[in-house]
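Exercise: predict the fold of this chain.
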Amino acid sequence: MSEPKPERSRGHAGMPWVQVGALVLGALLMIYGVVGFWPAFAPPGPDGRQPTLLGLEINPLRSVLTLALGVAGMLSATRMSAARAWGWVVAAVNLVFVVFGILGIVDRDIDWLAMNVASTVVAGVFVVLGLVLALGRVSRPFPGGDRSEPAAQGEPVRREHR
C-alpha cells in the first residue's frame, strides 16, 4: 500500500517583481505628484521663484503629469505586459523632464517646468527605474514559484537532477 501524496497548498498566486515594482513605483509617483501641489500654489518668493519642497522645485503641470503617471502605474500592475509598457512610459516622460531640467538650468528663461538640479536628478532616477521595469529579466512566473513550471519569456525550464 502506498500512502496518498499530500496535496500541494493552493495559496495566493504571487506577482512577478515587475508588477510589484509598477505598483510600488506608481504609489511613489502618486505621492510625489499629490505632495507637489502643496508648494506649487504658494505665492512666489521675493526672487519670483516658487517655494521648494525638500529642495525640489515644484510645478503644477509636472505634479499633474506625475500624479497621472502614478495612477497609470497602479492600474498597469495587473498584467506584466502592461507593467513593462508603463516602465517605458515612465522612462520617456521623465527623460523629457531631464531634458527640460537641463535646458532650464542652462537658461532660466526657458524653465517652463521649474526644474532645479535636484528635480532633474529625481527625474533621472525615475528614468532608470522605468528602464529597470521595462527591461528587467523575470526568470520565474512568480516569486517562490515551483521550478517545474515553465519559465517566463520563453526561457528553458531548468530541472534539478536528483
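Check your answer against the key: DSSP finds five helices and two strands in the chain.
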